[in-house]
Specification:
Number of strands: 12
Largest sheet: 5 strands, mixed
CATH superfamily: Cytochrome P450
Structural class: alpha+beta
Number of helices: 16
Radius of gyration: 21 Å
Shape: globular
Strand order of the largest sheet: 1-2-8-5-3
CATH topology: Cytochrome p450
Strand content: 5-15%
Order of helices and strands: HEEHEHHHHEHHHHHHHHEEEEHHEEEE
Number of domains: 1
Helix content: 40-55%
Mean pLDDT: 93
Low-confidence stretches: none
CATH architecture: Orthogonal Bundle
Distance between the termini: 21 Å
Bound molecules: protoporphyrin IX containing FE
């Protein structure tokens, strides 16, 4: 049986993307949770940061937006005020400003609205799986996991079918900005200064800006006014409308957030099914209750969005250390989801896990993932359709992880299907 145990030496440098090349350094997170639940890391070429690694602390701190603010950047990198203002979306604001914008689009991503996409998601899954399975051997990430999220998001946003592959490529360039496989402008290796006012410091941001503008022009011409992209442009309860820049940043956020995270949850699920055939059998025989709990367990185990950053608004003490106002504080959701104090046997998949208080979606905080119902439904339907079609899935070569300390996931997984 393949071991899901991590292999790092327990002292990985969390500021380095290279520390995540073999997957998240879970021995390091386990040691930090045990010995140093609030830990300081230095960062090359920038200000250091605090890491919070325990489930309990992350839940507490994530809800305390008055103490730990999102309004000075949410990534590990430092941002000047100018960069922050140029790149921010409502994700980089705090309540009440955040709530006023979020409410405009919240309903469009709510559980009952997303449930109406079930048939469309199934249709997309049918076509992706039929094509891949017919070929017998394929890359489970490129040919399956990578295909679904943008095809569905494209339908929600009303982007033409012909643009979807391009949008996936641009989404990858944005969010996988530390992996040379996906971008020429590797954020910690190339000089990205020219793009510092663009989302993710990436030139793909500029292309997506132009695309969003042209898309809205087309929609206006057709008299289309009801979609998600129009909702975010409505005045809030105080009559304020987001700026054009914020709108385009929101578009980039959706293309980035809606693309990779669900992909890497599916990729992790397929890796697990290939390496633990008993999970496949369990899904195949699963009742409705199992299909309620299994997607969240795969997402907990995958934890693709490994951290988000906050900034301390005032000095505070935690675990005997003093955080100073202005310090960067990282909430490592990926570590919380393996916390032995919160989960029995956290490194194993228990598809019936109930309750499952994972924080992969940033649970507890005001920024809890907007797309979580969509992601859950996509993972569920893809797996339901897969298990109907196959006898077994075999991993036929080594898998590879994305080079990133922000988004964690398997980017290559060669497999063969057995009927
Ligand atoms: C398994 C898949 C996904 C995971 C693990 C995930 C994870 C997260 C996390 C951890 C946050 C909280 C950010 C914070 O605390 O600052 C978040 C926020 C967000 N997510 Fe997701 N996400 C997923 C899928 C999606 C999808 C499919 C979409 C869009 C279609 C999406 C759109 C967003 C947006 C817009 C926010 C910002 C919400 C706000 O600031 O109020 N996500 N996501």
């Amino acid at each position: 049986m393949t071991s899901f145990a991590p292999t790092d030496d327990g002292h990985a440098d969390l500021s380095s993307h290279d520390s995540f090349l073999a997957g998240a350094p879970h021995n390091t997170f386990a040691r930090l949770r045990r010995e140093e639940p609030l830990a300081w890391s230095e960062m090359d070429g920038g200000r250091g940061f605090w890491s919070v690694t325990r489930h309990h602390d992350i839940l507490e701190l994530n809800r305390n937006f008055e103490l730990l603010s999102s309004a000075q950047g949410i990534r590990m990198e430092d941002q000047t005020r100018e960069e922050y203002l140029a790149r921010r979306t409502f994700q980089e604001t705090d309540p009440p400003e955040h709530s006023r914008t979020r409410v405009l689009v919240a309903k469009a991503f709510s559980k009952p609205v997303v449930a109406q996409f079930e048939i469309q998601i199934k249709e997309i899954c049918d076509s992706i799986l039929d094509a891949a399975i017919e070929s017998g051997s394929f890359d489970a990430v490129k040919d399956v996991a990578r295909q679904l999220p943008m095809r569905m998001l494209g339908r929600i946003l009303g982007t033409p079918e012909r643009d979807l592959d391009w949008l996936v490529e641009k989404g990858d360039q944005l969010i996988a900005n530390a992996d040379p496989e996906f971008t020429k402008h590797v954020v910690d290796r190339a000089d990205t200064d020219a793009y510092r006012l663009m989302p993710f410091r990436s030139p793909a941001g500029a292309e997506l800006f132009d695309y969003a503008k042209a898309l809205m022009r087309e929609k206006d011409k057709r008299g289309e006014t009801g979609g998600v992209l129009h909702l975010i442009l409505q005045p809030d309860m105080h009559g304020n409308v987001i700026s054009e820049l914020e709108f385009r940043n929101f578009f980039c956020l959706l293309v980035a957030a809606g693309n990779d995270t669900t992909r890497y949850s599916i990729a992790a699920s397929l890796y697990a099914l290939a390496n633990r055939p008993e999970l496949l059998a369990e899904l195949r025989n699963g009742d409705a209750q199992l299909w309620e709990t299994a997607p969240d367990e795969f997402i907990r185990w995958a934890s693709p969005t490994m951290h988000f950053r906050r900034t301390a608004t005032r000095d505070f003490d935690l675990h005997g250390k003093q955080v100073k106002a202005g310090d960067k504080v990282l909430l490592w959701f990926v570590s919380a989801n393996r916390d032995e104090m919160a989960f029995d046997d956290p490194f194993e998949l228990n598809l019936k896990r109930t309750p499952n208080r994972h924080v992969a979606f940033g649970q507890g905080g005001p920024h809890i993932c907007l797309g979580m119902w969509l992601a859950r439904l996509e993972v569920k339907i893809l797996l339901q359709e897969l298990v109907k079609r196959i006898g077994a899935i075999e991993q036929t070569g080594p898998h590879e992880f994305l080079r990133s300390n922000f988004i964690g996931g398997i980017k290559r997984l060669p497999v063969k299907i057995h009927h």
